[in-house]
Amino acid sequence: xxxxxxxxxxxxxxxxxxxxxxxxxxxxxxxxxxxxxxxxxxxxxxxxxxxxxxxxxxxxxxxxxxxxxxxxxxxxxxxxxxxxxxxxxxxxxxxxxxxxxxxxxxxxxxxxxxxxxxxxxxxxxxxxxxxxxxxxxxxxxxxxxxxxxxxxxxxxxxxxxxxxxxxxxxxxxxxxxxxxxxxxxxxxxxxxxxxxxxxxxxxxxxxxxxxxxxxxxxxxxxxxxxxxxxxxxxxxxxxxxxxxxxxxxxxxxxxxxxxxxxxxxxxxxxxxxxxxxxxxxxx
Amino acid sequence: xxxxxxxxxxxxxxxxxxxxxxxxxxxxxxxxxxxxxxxxxxxxxxxxxxxxxxxxxxxxxxxxxxxxxxxxxxxxxxxxxxxxxxxxxxxxxxxxxxxxxxxxxxxxxxxxxxxxxxxxxxxxxxxxxxxxxxxxxxxxxxxxxxxxxxxxxxxxxxxxxxxxxxxxxxxxxxxxxxxxxxxxxxxxxxxxxxxxxxxxxxxxxxxxxxxxxxxxxxxxxxxxxxxxxxxxxxxxxxxxxxxxxxxxxxxxxxxxxxxxxxxx
Lengths: 283, 264
Fold this sequence. Notes:
- The complex is a heterodimer of chains A (283) and B (264).
- Chain A has 283 residues and is α/β, with parallel strands linked by helices.
- Chain A is built from eleven helices and ten strands.
- By secondary structure, chain B is mostly helical.
- The radius of gyration of chain B is 22 Å and the shape is globular.
- The termini of chain B are far apart.
- The relative contact order of chain B is 0.15.
- Chains A and B meet through α2, β6, α3 and α5 of A and α5 of B.
């Protein structure tokens, strides 16, 4: 176990025995995940397995029913409102929709966290914003409104905004979903570069297998509220679990069934059992 | 026989719990938005921007409605009062009706329709597009940043709008009564001057509109913040804002009138 990266002492985030229920549905049943400092960790799984919920637990927007969430040494669910907001200044999060403020320009969007959290003079804010926009290749788009951006550009502006405060941790919520191949390539490159140049700890939530495995240092696969497999990309590709293989290779049927649980077909179509029995005898 | 009865009881209880729960949430919500002193450097420009969009942009509808209501009051008052040969009292009647009742109430109703619904829709859409959530994750409290300035803007704007409504309405009454129907102008104004008391009438009217300002702004921002973040959810929240605000304004108006002018 000495070489196990999940046991490394430099863990930035530790989720321990998380149980989380929404309404009647148990989303996480005893999930433990660790995110080492300065590495890219991918959390993967089929849609609807609560990957985004996991990010909201880390960010303190949701509280687990049981278990602990530790970020940079702070127990997130126990933090006071004030301390939580202070901790969040050290995190960045890239939302799937980008979540740009629609009423202000690209420049003002990126400047927003700086204006709120710092008292930097205007020239310095301008320099920082242009630097961040340069990093995502959109310095020329500074005067556009969010409505004028394409999907890929929106996500890059949102990325520039989430790194404006030079965070220690950045969380990507489905960064590749719905992107064309070029935009996808750009995002893969940006995520890797940011991790290398800024030494960011990155958590990547995604169901795009090849892209995620190409950049992450290690990955966890969540299914049915549990972790079904974790390890480096190579370890996962050779993982013995059927669930892991079904997910990585995209088989339509397997441990995750093709059919959503449904009442018996005979009952649903209102066919008498006798009729089908006769048909079975058929020709 | 027993099933529907228990079902009805259960749904009654569920409705009660939901109502009380949402009241409690809205109270905590308002407390969190307003607790703590905002930093003037950040807060003031936000407040001014919201007063512009909530208050200044509502001026047109308030002025036009005030004018017409004043004119109608002048016309109706004249036909009734002239039966008793006391059409000079028209100034007093128009002014008291507007300052005590119609100014605060109609302005609040217009405000709920014009500004309240737009506040709800704006906040609801910010919620649906995760703008509020992303603000939280940036370490910015949306309650302070988005909700508080909008609430204060409504609270400040509504009384001012109500006063403007009354002034324009009195002018409209004067146009009809004096300029058109020929009531003696001196009697019109002096009757008004002697009948309207600053403390009892004008100030009570302003207090009413302050109360309506709190209620309308509170309902509008809470419905937006608490809405289900889908298109159907936002549309139902906007409807609720207008319906709840209107009912609250009319109900509270009766209570306030009873306390202020009921002679208890």
